[in-house]
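P.,

For your records, the input lines for the assembly:
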Amino acid sequence: MTELVDATRTTGAAPAGARVSLEGLVRTYGTTRALDGFSLAIEPGEFVALLGPSGCGKTTALRVLAGFERLDSGRVTVDGRDVSKISAQHRDMGMVFQSYSLFPNMNALNNVAFGLRMRRQHATQRRQKAGELLELVGLSDQASKYPHQMSGGQQQRIALARALAIEPRVLLLDEPLSALDAKVRAELRDQIRQLQQRLAITTVFVTHDQEEALSMADRVCVMSAGRAEQTATPAALYSRPTTSFVAEFVGVSSRVPVEPVDGSVVLFGERCRIRASDTGLPNGPLDALLRPEDVAITLDETAKPFVTHKSFLGATTRVIAQVDGVAVRVDVRSDVAADIELGARVRVSVVSRDVLVAERSVTNPVSPQ
Amino acid sequence: MTELVDATRTTGAAPAGARVSLEGLVRTYGTTRALDGFSLAIEPGEFVALLGPSGCGKTTALRVLAGFERLDSGRVTVDGRDVSKISAQHRDMGMVFQSYSLFPNMNALNNVAFGLRMRRQHATQRRQKAGELLELVGLSDQASKYPHQMSGGQQQRIALARALAIEPRVLLLDEPLSALDAKVRAELRDQIRQLQQRLAITTVFVTHDQEEALSMADRVCVMSAGRAEQTATPAALYSRPTTSFVAEFVGVSSRVPVEPVDGSVVLFGERCRIRASDTGLPNGPLDALLRPEDVAITLDETAKPFVTHKSFLGATTRVIAQVDGVAVRVDVRSDVAADIELGARVRVSVVSRDVLVAERSVTNPVSPQ
Amino acid sequence: MASLIPDIVEDALVAVPEVPGRRRRPRLRLWRAVVLFLAGAYFLIPIYAGLRFSFENDAGHLSLYAVKAIPSEPGFSAAFWLSMRLAVVTLALTLVLMVPTSVYVHLKLPRLRRLLDFVTILPIVIPPIVLILGVLRAAPLWLRASPYLLSLVYVILSMPFVYRSLDAGLSAIDLKTLVEASRSLGGNWLNTLWRVVVPNLRSALLSATVLTLALVLGEFTMASLDLWTTLPVWIYQFQQVDAHVSTAVSMVSLIGTWLLITLIVSLDRSQSRRTRRRTNNS
Amino acid sequence: MASLIPDIVEDALVAVPEVPGRRRRPRLRLWRAVVLFLAGAYFLIPIYAGLRFSFENDAGHLSLYAVKAIPSEPGFSAAFWLSMRLAVVTLALTLVLMVPTSVYVHLKLPRLRRLLDFVTILPIVIPPIVLILGVLRAAPLWLRASPYLLSLVYVILSMPFVYRSLDAGLSAIDLKTLVEASRSLGGNWLNTLWRVVVPNLRSALLSATVLTLALVLGEFTMASLDLWTTLPVWIYQFQQVDAHVSTAVSMVSLIGTWLLITLIVSLDRSQSRRTRRRTNNS
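C-alpha cells returned:
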C-alpha cells in the first residue's frame, strides 16, 4: 500500500478529478432508442458505475462520453465545458475496453507510452513515465513482453496503465473484467478501486454485474431502456430501491404475495410496515420483496413450509423454502444449515418488521429460481 | 416445482444414476502431464464438481470420461465395466459444452431429438420425447426457434435438454455457464441443480469458479497439476481444507504471519489452537489463513490497525484493515460498516480460537488484494 | 459470397449502416454512392462496350445479326458442350476431394492447415505455362489424348478458391464442438458429416461451386495450350473470322454464367427463406 | 500464408499434432505422410518433368545448352523487364487502392463488406476474354498504346486475392477496439493507420504482395490478347523456336518467383524472430 502511494507521488499524477455532467442524452439507432433522455451528474473524483442488463444503453452512454458516438440531442460537459462536438482524439479520456485492446505489435512499455508519443513527449521522458505506470499496476517486470505473452488479467492491467498514462481527466471502464476468470476478476476489482481512490480520478464504470457495481462504486446508476432508474450509493440502492426494477436487479429477492391493510402488510403471520418501492404505494395486489438476509428459518416439524434446495456459499448457505407454493430464499449460517436437510419442515419469519413492496408480478412465483 | 416433478414422471426419465470410477488417469501432451495419476470415485446420482485453475487438468479429465481423449494409462469404469476402449459414440454420456454447441441448421426440437434419431427411434416418438424435455427445461414455446434466434441462456438450456434426451448414464457439464451473464448464470445454476436432483443422474461438472462449484455440487474435487488435491463436500472443503492450495483456492483468505508455540499460535494478541492445513504441521515460519468471517473488528481510536478499503457486498460489507503491514479482510454487517470510515482505527480480533495454518507464503503480504 | 445479389443491392442502397447517427448519414450515403459508382464503372463500362459491339454490324449500325448467327457458327456447339462437360466433371472431382480432406484436416490435423494453405496457393504461384507444359509431359498417353486431362488441371487451378471457401466456412462454425456433440449423442462419422457438418457449410459449398464453374467456363490458357477448343478458345479463334459474333458469344457466355450463378444462389436463398418463414409461424 | 516454408515443413514432419495420444500417433503419421505424398506428387511430378526437359538437348541427352542460351535469346531481356515493371506498378496501385478502402469499409461501412466480397469476385466470374475485349474497346487511345493498361487489368485480376487477404487480416484483429483505443489516446487517423493498423496486418499484406507478384509474373491470356510480349508470352512464342530453351526459361521463372517469395517471407520471419528474441531477453 505504501508503495502505491509512493508510486503515485513520483509520477506526479494526481490530477484533480473533473466534474462530468450528462444532460438529456438521446441516441437512436433506426427505431431503437439506445439512450432516451439519460442524465447523470458526476462529482470530481467520484467512481460511478452504470449498471443494467444488456441493451439498457449503459455502453452507449459511455461511448457518447468517450466521443465514439454522436448524440441526437443532449449534451456532455466536463468541468462545465461542453465537449459534445470534440472528437475522441482530443477529449483526454482514458478508456479501458471489454476485449483486450492492447496493440499486438507493441510491447507493454510501448503500449503504455503510446498516448505520450501521440502527445509528442520526448522519448526518454515517456519511457520513464510508462515505466512508473507499469510499476503502479505492479507489472514492471513485464515491460518488454508482448500482449500475446501475457495473461488476460495482466493485459487489462497494462490497458489500465496505458489509459492512466495520459493523465486523463476522466477514466472510462467498459466492462474491463468481464473476460476474466472469477479469481482474477475479484483481485483486479480491488486493484482498480484502490488505484482510483489513490489517484482521485473521476471514473465511469460500465457493468452488467451487480456485485461488481456495488462492491466498487461510490455511486451506482441503474439503467433501463435508455434511462436512469435510480442513482444512489450501493447501500442506499440495496436497502431503499425506488423502483421494483432496481429492487429486483440489485441483490437477490424473493417475491411473496401480500395484501395491504392500512399501510401495512401481513407476512408469514406478522404485521410489517411498508417501505415503499415504486414511488408512492401501488394500488392493487402487492408482492413483498425479501432479501435472503431479511428472512429467518428454524426447524419445526409442525410447520407447513419445507426446504426444497440448499446451496453452500461459504460462510452462509442459501436455503430455498417453499411457503404456500412460493419459493423463499433464506441465507443461513453454514454451521446452522448443516442440520437442515432437504425436505425438512421449517418455520419462516421476517427479521425486520419493515418490508419493501412492489406491484404483484405476473411471472409464476413457483419458478425454480 | 410440482410441474417439474410431473414432467419428469411423464418422460419416464428417472434412470438410476451410474457409479463412475476414474482410476490413476495419466494423459501426456508432449512433455506436459495434463493428468498425472488422477483418481476419483463417483457415487450413483452424485453431483461432483471438478474445480481448479486453468491448466489443472479438469477439462482433460472430463473429456477422457466422455471418450474424446485417449488415456496413456489408467482406466475409466461405469457401473464396474471398463469403458476406456469404448468410443464416445457408444458411451451413453450426455454432454453440455462451454461454447454454444447446438446444431445451427436445426431448430430447438430437432436439436433435442438428434440423439434419439441417431438411436433410430420412430419420428413421432422422438418428437414427443423431445417436446417433453423442452417442457422440462421450460422452453416448450421455443421448439421451432433456431439457435441464432435464442439467447445464450436459452441455448444452454436446450443443450441440457438435448443431453438429457438420450437418458444418459452420466451427465457431463463442461463449464456450461461461463459464457453467460452474471444474472442468467445464477438462475441456470439453480435450474441445473434442481433438474439433476430430480432425475438423480450422476453428474460431473467442470468449473474454475469456486462459488459455482461450492453452491451446486454434492462433492467438490479440487485439482492441481493433473491430480486431485482434495475431494470433499463443499462445507468440509471450506472449513477443513487439507492443503494450503485448497485453503487459498476455495474461499477468500487473508494470510497473517504467526509463530507456532506448542501447537498453538498467537494471533492479534490471542492464543489460538491450530487446525492443521497441509497434512502434518509444517516446520518453520507459518501463516494463519483467515476467512473474512473468522475475523471481527470494532472501532477503537487507540488501536494501531486502520481501515484501507471497503466494498459493499449486500448484507455484508468487506473491510480491509491493515494490521502491522498485513492486509486482513473482514466481513462486517453492512449497517455496522456504514459507521466505519476509510482510515478509521479499529481493533481486530478472531471469532474462533481455532485457526488454519500453512507454510509462510513468499508473496508480499502488503499486496493490494 | 453467402447470399449474393439481391441482398447486396438491398443492403447497399437501402439499409441503415450499423453505426448510423442522424448527422452522419448523408456523408455515409455519399461514400457509398462513390464506392458503388466506381465499382460499377470499373466493371460495367467494359461490359457495356462489349454489348454495344455485339449489336453492331461491320458498318457500325445497330443489328441483331451477330447474336442470331451464334448457334449456326461452325464449331460453336461442340465447344459449348465440351465446356459444360468439363465444368461438371471438375466440380464433382473437386468437391469429392476437398470436402472430406478439409474437414479431416480441420478436426484432426490442425497443424496441417498451414501446409494446405500453402499447397493450395501453389497453382497461383506457378505460372500456368509451366503447369500445363509439365502436366502435358508428365501425363500418360491415354490421358493426354482425353479432354478430361483439362479437368485434372482445373481441379488444381480451382483448389485455392475452393479450399479457401471451405476453410473459411469451417472456421466460422465451431466444428470441433459440433462434431463432439454429435458423437456424444451417438452419431457415427457419416451421420455427423452429412447431418451436422455439410448443412452448416452451405454457403461455403455454394461459393466453391460458383467459383469452380466460373473458372472452368472462362479459362483460356490451359485449354488453348492443350489444344482443346473449349468455349473461350472458340471465342478467341472465331474473333479473327467475325469479331462481332465472337464478342456476342462472349457476352452471351457471361450472361449465361451469371444466370447459372443466380440460379444456384436463389435456390440457396429460397431454402433459407423457407426456414425463416417456418420459424416465424411458430 | 503468414509464415511460410520452413515452419510448415517443420510442422508437417516433426511437430506433435494438437491432439496426439500415444496410440493414435502412428495412424496420424500415416495420414500425414499420405497427404504430403499426394500433394507432393501432384505438384512435383510436372515440375520434375519440366526440369528434366530443360536439361535435355534435342537428342534427349543431358545438356546445359538451354539454360546457357537464355540471356542471349532474342526478345528475352525486353520481355523480362516489361514483366518486372508491370509487377511493381501493379503492386503499388493495388496496395494504395485496397488498404485504405478495406480498412474504411471494415470500420465504417461493415454492411458494404458483402458488396465488396461480391465485387472483388467478379474478375474471376467474368471470362478473361470478355474482360480484355471490353477493356480494350473502352480504354482511351493513349492508354491502349501503353503496356500499363495491362497493370490496370492486373489490378482487377488481383483484387479477389488481395481483398480476401486484407479482409481476413482485418477480421483477425479487433480493428474497431484497436482504432478506438488509439483515438482515445490522442492518435489521429494517419497515426492510427500507420502505427496501429498496418503493423498488425503484416501477414495479410505479405500474402497480398506474394499473390499479386505471382499473378503478374505468370499471367498469359491478357498479355497475349493485348499484344504485349511479357515473359509468359515470350515463353509461349519461343516454344515454337526451341522448346527446350522455352521450358528452361519457365523453370527459371518459376524458381525466380519462389526465390522472391522466400525472400519476402524470410524478411517477415526474421522480423518476428527479432521481436521474439528481444522478448526472451527480458
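Two observations worth noting. Residues 147 and 255 of chain B are 47 Å apart (CA to CA). Residues 1-15, 364-369 of chain B have pLDDT under 50 and may be disordered.

Regards
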